[in-house]
Every structure is written in C-alpha cells, then in structure tokens.
Amino acid sequence: MSAHVDALAAPHPGTWVASVVATPSSEPELQEGVDPDSVTPGVLGFLVTLAAVVACIPLFLSMTRKIRGVQHRGRLETEAEEERAAGDGPAGGPARDAEAPEGTDPGGPRG
Questions:
Q1: Which of these, 101, 75, 79, lies nearest to 88 by C-alpha position?
Q2: 96 closest CA partner among 104, 105, 106, 81
Q3: How far is it, in rounded angstroms, from Cα 106 to Cα 54?
Q4: ∠ CA(95), CA(98), CA(104), 5° rounding?
C-alpha cells in the first residue's frame, strides 16, 4: 500500500524535469520501401483541411457581423450620453429631429 501512495506523491523536482525533457534522437525511421520524399497527407488530409476552412468561413462572417453590431450600439450609446450631458434632449424622450405626426403643426399649438 505504501508503494502505491509513494507512486502518487509528487516526485522530486529534479527527477521530474529529467523525466519530462525529451532526449534527442536521430531522424525517425520509415518502413522499408517508403521514400521520405513521397510521403504526403494525401486526399484525406486535403479533405479534412478543406472541411475545416469551409466550416470556419461562416463563423468568421458571423463574428464580423456581431462585432460590427456591438461597435455600432456602442457609438449610439456614446452619442446618446453626450446628448444627455449637453442637455439637448430628455433622457428617454423623442429625438429632436423626429417628424411631427400627420395633421399637427410642427411648431406646436398657437394661440
């Protein structure tokens, strides 16, 4: 039981580093009869890469639309805050440039 507990305990830092660092080795060996210059990912590798690219295009387009929307809303909020700070309009009221409803005088009631 104690051997099992010792195996789970953290190893000494020096031995851990020595066991993690890879030892340099010679070039990996291929099977006999395989030319290292003719090894390619092949059609399957191309199709997987193509599928990844095709899947990412709509994601990138959607992300661009979302970012532009957030930036636009941020500009609108900044303009509204500046307008309120300047006292040009009420905090929740209609905009100054809003058209008057039909049948009303845009200058307001007279008399």
A1: 79
A2: 106
A3: 55
A4: 130
Residues whose CB is less than 8 angstroms from the CB of residue 29 and which lie 6 or more positions away in sequence, other chains included:
none
CA 63/CA 67 separation, integer angstroms:
6
Burial profile 8-26: b = 16 or more Cβ within 10 angstroms, e = fewer:
eeeeeeeeeeeeeeeeeee
CA 80-71-86 angle, 5° bins: 15
- Enter the tokens of residue 43: 């059609």
pLDDT tens, residue order, the chain (111 aa): 555 555 555 556 555 555 555 565 677 677 788 887 777 888 999 999 999 999 999 999 999 999 999 999 999 999 999 999 988 555 555 555 555 556 565 555 554
Please, what sign has the CA dihedral across residues 93, 96, 97, 98? Answer: positive
**What is the sign of the dihedral through the CA atoms of 70, 76, 78 and 81?**
negative
pTM for the predicted model, two decimal places: 0.42
